[in-house]
Amino acid sequence: LSDKLQNIFKNLRKKGKLTEEDVKSALKEVKLALLEADVSFKVVKSFMKDVQDRAVGADVMNGLNPGQMVIKIVSDELTSLMGSEMVDLKLNPQTSMTVIMMMGLNGAGKTTTSAKLAAKLKSRGYRPLLAGLDIYRPAAVKQLQVNAEKIGIDVYWDDKHEFLPPDIAKNAVGYAQQNGYNIVILDTAGRLQIDKDMMDELHEIKEKVTVDDSILVVDAMTGQDAVNVASAFEEKVGIDGVILTKLDGDTRGGVALSIRATVGKPILYVGMGEKLDDLQQFYPDRMASRILGMGDVMTLIEKAQQNVNEEQARAMEQKLRKASFGFDDYLASMDQMKKMGGMKSVLSMIPGVSTSQMSQFEDAIDEKAMARTEAIIYSMTPKERSNPDILTPSRRARVAKGAGVSIDEVNRLCRQFEQSRKLMKQYGNMLKGGKKRRGFG
Length: 441
Ligand code: GDP
Ligand code: MG
Fold this sequence. Notes:
Elements: H1 2-14, H2 20-36, H3 41-55, H4 66-81, E1 98-103, H5 110-123, E2 128-132, H6 140-151, E3 154-156, H7 165-178, E4 183-187, H8 196-208, E5 213-219, H9 224-236, E6 241-245, H10 253-263, E7 267-271, E8 279-281, H11 284-292, H12 297-307, H13 310-322, H14 327-339, H15 343-347, H16 355-359, H17 367-378, H18 382-386, H19 393-403, H20 407-431
Parallel strand pairs: 1-4, 1-5, 2-3, 2-4, 5-6, 6-7
Antiparallel strand pairs: 7-8
Residues 104, 106-112, 190, 217, 245-246, 248-249, 271-274, 278 line the site of guanosine-5'-diphosphate.
Family: Belongs to the GTP-binding SRP family. SRP54 subfamily.
Subunit structure: Part of the signal recognition particle protein translocation system, which is composed of SRP and FtsY.
Subcellular location: Cytoplasm
């Protein structure tokens, strides 16, 4: 899906002006791309209608070109389809009990995700207890125990094999109440496919204990099937939220789209790997960007549009694409960043930028620091500015002397520059529709 859309939008971006025909054919391509990605036909249809309704007659405003306008509309609609707002689990106060029931087909990722969730809640100050309810597969409880041990979480299970899952659930909650836990996560048994026994069992669990969150775990790789699964669970048991797993694989962002649109339940988290800390909050806007494969480029465009004239931006984009980013550009970009609301707000829109990377830049934009930075850069020869890699220690010493600063300061600026060049490259790749879309969630 992403590759396809990226191509479409790459073409749109290249065009200065867009005719109505262009818009129409672009939307036709979007439709095909979504269908190819297993987004359910119904969802695609309503999505196309929303986009068309908004696109037709919409002003191309704020100095955007028509292509950017279409990108904005498509991206907005994708986001709103997936829920606009981030949603979390419904958790009771820590002084009382919260019961979370994990459900889904075999292999969806219930056991792994149960442990991931427990770890996350533990780090938020809760005392979670995991309960092994999959009594049908021999190694199921063992798997839960192995995971739980890695993260220091206790597991309740029916070690004497006396009870069926609904009663095990009840006993687990009783045990939790007596032993100072405030969350119980029920790792239920799945089946290979939608199955009456499974649904009945889940139903019975809900009758025996008060379940606060019935969470459906869905493998994001299952495509169109996921929608049928979600609909069945919603109808038979009821769903409070969805967790999509295996989004680290060759993912179909389309699943998020159609599940949200079909069952109307929020996606809370996404699984991004097999490790127990690979669970991330679901952000609809980021997911939309991911599906479109371009980060929050639209927001960037919007902000930049207000303050930076188009030629300047285009020249910068050219540089980013070629990644021929030198100290002169660094100065210019610092200036632009200032106009755009600070480096931090700009960096936060680039996928894959970590908080620690961001904090390195916080002081870089400070007025005084900027004056020193300018002094340092102006003490470089033009050749050094455009090709910072040639800045050997002896050259750095010369620059430091010229600018009246310490060598340490020059070194720090060089490091900062390197970081920023890396980020710019990342951003440049993103503009190119590069494949490095790491920073999801
Ligand atoms: P269950 O049958 O629903 O309990 O599923 P499991 O928790 O046993 O997971 C099935 C397989 O999927 C295991 O090999 C997990 O390691 C793997 N898995 C679960 N979540 C993820 C994920 O987010 N990413 C990846 N790559 N693998 C996952
Ligand atoms: Mg399991």
